[in-house]
Input
Amino acid sequence: MVLVSYPIALMLLLLLALIVGGDISQQAILWGGLCGVSQAFGIWWFYAALGTGPIAVVSPLTAILVAGIPVGVGLALGERPGAVAGVGVVLALIAVVLVSREATDGDVTPHRFTKKVAWLTVGSGMAFGLNFVMIAQAPPEAELWPLVFARLAASLLVLVIAAVTGNVRIPTGTPLRLALLAAALDAGANIAMLLALHASLLSLAGVLMSLYPAATVLLAIVVLRERVARWQAVGMVLALAAVAMIAAGQPLGA
Output
């Protein structure tokens, strides 16, 4: 699906970038390109880990890395969230793990968490987490151009990976329509991500964006009428509390 959604999202972002304007600097190209590379490898390694390892381990471990890396880098760069926001970050990290867990089907023998799966899991989590870190370094005056270069790099890399692994298949019918919808949502989500990172601390915006599994669980409940596990429900509550606390907490020195 990404073979269609990524290039379409690239075209949408390019059109918007031409309308908005901005400075196409070396920094915009560098950080945008690095962001795209990390996105592509993150997706590749994540699905490889899910395909060969236990979902109940791979998903929450990836999620905690996605949330933890922006927090760690932000603190290392000198960011100091207020006390309330700091507690919210801790709750968010716990919520990410809980809502990302999957119940194991008792009729199916779970995959083993081998050394290869462990490396793929850690690699995907780090790649996704660094995605936030890298795009946050892009200069604000570049406007949307870093996203264009990010999606360009990701599209090219995904195409190369698909060609090397023999998975170049263009979807048709409903999957194609879903891919087009995913492209539009992808473009909008990336714009929101960039604006959030430029308007807030990396340590706060990054951990909030890592709560995306909560939105997936909520959609599954509302749209698909799925039942969720007790720990996922607890995670949803913690996620709401974390968002409120992070929004209310003021960074020191702000």
Notes: Confidence is low (pLDDT under 50) at residues 104-109. Residues 171 and 177 are 9 Å apart (CA to CA).
